[in-house]
Amino acid sequence: MTESLREAIVAGRLEPGERLIEERLSTELQTSRGPVREALRQLEHEGLVMSFPYRGAVVVGVSEEEVHEVLIPIRLTLERFSFGKALDLLRDGDFAELGKQVWRMEEAARRADLYRIVEADLRFHDVVLAQAGQPHAVQLWRSIAPRIRAYFLRYGRSRELGLIVEEHRELLTALQTRDPEVVLALLEEHIAVESPVPQIARA
Amino acid sequence: MTESLREAIVAGRLEPGERLIEERLSTELQTSRGPVREALRQLEHEGLVMSFPYRGAVVVGVSEEEVHEVLIPIRLTLERFSFGKALDLLRDGDFAELGKQVWRMEEAARRADLYRIVEADLRFHDVVLAQAGQPHAVQLWRSIAPRIRAYFLRYGRSRELGLIVEEHRELLTALQTRDPEVVLALLEEHIAVESPVPQIARA
DNA sequence: CACGGCTCGATTGTCAACAATATCCGGATG
DNA sequence: CATCCGGATATTGTTGACAATCGAGCCGTG
Questions:
Q1: Is there a single domain that holds both residue B159 and residue B122?
Q2: Domain check: are A131 and A150 in the same one?
Q3: Is the CB of residue A146 less than 8 Å away from at least one CB of chain B?
Q4: Which of A102, A108, A170, B71: CA 20 to 30 A from A53?
Q5: Cβ partners under 8 Å of residue B158, min gap 6
Q6: Is A162 contained in some domain?
Q7: Residue A203 lies in a domain
Q8: B27: Cβ under 7 Å from strand C?
Q9: How far is the C-alpha of A63 from the C-alpha of A67, rounded, in Å?
Q10: Residue A33 CB lies within 7 Å of the nucleic strand C
Q11: Same domain, B49 and B69
Q12: Contact predicate A44/A50, CB 8 Å
C-alpha cells in the first residue's frame, strides 16, 4: 500500500513539490490515516518525500548532481562491501533468483520497457545485498535505491538497454565463480559508468 | 520524546537484542502507542532498531566492520560534497554556532566527558551539512550519524580527546577562509583517521 | 493604503478501543 | 516419547474521534 504511493512518485505521476494530504490519500487508498502516515514516514526515509511538523508532506525530486556525487558513490560503497561479503553466502536458490532477474531484463529490453528493466536491475542488486548479512548496508541500500530508481526513470539513460542486460549476465557468471577480484572489478565498472566524474583526488 | 528513546539506545542503556514493546514504552514515556510507533520507525531508519511485521522491534548493534567499511566511507562522501557546497553559504551566525560547539568540546574535553564531546562533534558537522542545502545529503547524514554516535560512545576511541577539539578548531578557521582546497584536505584527514584501512584500490 | 491582530477552515498530532496476527504451551495421537 | 494440532495470551496493526497547530483572509487602526 505504501508501495502504490511509492510507485506514483517514482514513476513520476506525482510531481516534486506536490502536497500529500493524509486524509485525501487515505480515502483514495481505501484505508485510514494511520497507515498513510506510516507510509509517508517510510517514503520520507527513502528520500522521496519531505515532511514538516503540522505542515504536511511534499514530494521531493533528486538533482542530477546529488545523484552523481552522493547517491552513486554511496551505492558503490555499499555494493563493494556487500558483494564481497555475499560471495561465500550465495546459494543455488539465490543464483536462480538472479538468473530470473536477468531473464526479466532481457524480456524488458526486447520491448524497450525501461520501467521493468530498472525494476529487475535493482532487484538483482537487492538479492545480493540481502544475502550479505550486513544489516546496516541493506538498510541504507533500501533507503537510496528508490531515489536512484526515480532518477533512472525520470532521466532515463541513453545507454543501450541491451548493455545493461549484458553487464548483469556477466556479473552473474562472475558471482558464480565466487572470485572477489573478478566480481568487484565488474561491479566497479558497472556502477561507475553511471557516475561520470568520480571526484576521488588522484595523486 | 523519540529523543529519549534514542538516547537510551545510543548511550547503551538498552542492549542490542532487547525487545521494545510499544505499550510498555508508551506508559514509561507518558504517551500513547501512536507516537511510540512513529519513534520506533524513526529509530529504525536511523539503524538503531529493526522491526518485523506483527513481531515487534529490537535494538540493533553496529559491528566495527560495518562502521569502518560502510558508515565512515559514506560519511566521507556526504561531508566532502556538503562541505564544498556549504563554503559559500555559511553566514556569521553559522560560524558563531560552530564556535560554540568547539567551545563545548573544549569544556567536555577538560572533564574527559566523552558523551558531550561526541555530541558537540556531530553537532558541528550537522551545522555545516544543514547549510549546504542538499536535501538528500542531510537526510542521509541524519540517518547514519546516530549509529556513528552509538559506536563512538560504545567503543570510545583511544585518541586523545584534546586532539578532537584541536582538529575542529582548525576546521573552523579553515571554513572561515572559504578555501575548498584547505577545508577538504583537513576534512579528509579528520574523518579518515577513524577509518583505519580505506579499501580504495590503489594503482 | 500598509500593517498587526483575530477568527476560521484545513490539516496534522494524539488517543483509546477494536481487529488481526504471532508465539507459547498443553494435550491428543501416532 | 516425539510430534502435531488448537486454544490462550501477548503484541502489533487499524480505525474513528478529538485536540493542537498552522496559514489565509478579514477587519480595524494608524
A1: yes
A2: yes
A3: no
A4: B71
A5: none
A6: yes
A7: no
A8: no
A9: 6
A10: yes
A11: no
A12: yes
Residue B71 near residue B141, CB atoms below 8 Å: no
Question: Does A54 contact strand C, using a CB cutoff of 7 Å?
Answer: yes
At which of B43, B59, B75 does a domain end? Answer: B59
Cα separation, B202 vs A38, whole angstroms: 44
Contact A55, A17 (CB under 8 A): no
- Tell which of A10, A31, A59 closes a domain: A59
Determine contact: A154 vs chain B, CB below 8 A: no
- Residues A184 and A126 placed together within one structural domain of the fold: yes
Alpha carbon distance A66, B129 (integer Å): 13
Asked whether the beta carbons of residue B140 and residue A74 sit closer than 8 angstroms, the reply is: yes
A56 touches strand C (CB under 7 A): yes
pLDDT, position B156? 73
Section B36-65 average pLDDT: 97
Residues 8-37 (B) near nucleic chain D, CB < 7 A: 19-23, 33-34, 37
Tens-place pLDDT, residues A137-196: 999 999 999 999 999 998 876 677 889 999 999 999 999 999 999 999 999 999 877 644
Note down the domain range covering B149.
Answer: 64-192
- Please answer yes or no on whether B70 and A200 come within 8 Å at the CB atom: no
Q: Which three cell numbers stand for residue B154?
A: 560504545
Q: For all residues of chain A together, what is the average pLDDT?
A: 92
Weakest mean pLDDT among A50-54, B62-66, B188-192, B195-199: B195-199
Is B203 a domain residue? Answer: no
> Å between B95 CA and C3 C1'?
35
Tell me, what's the pLDDT at B158? Answer: 60
Is A137 near chain B, with CB under 8 Å?
yes
Are B45 and A143 a contacting pair, CB within 8 Å? yes
Same domain, yes or no: B73 and B173:
yes
Mean pLDDT calculated for residue range B179-200: 76
Q: Is residue B84 part of a domain?
A: yes
**Chain B 39-68, CB below 8 Å of chain A: which residues?**
41-42, 45, 47, 50, 60, 62-63, 66
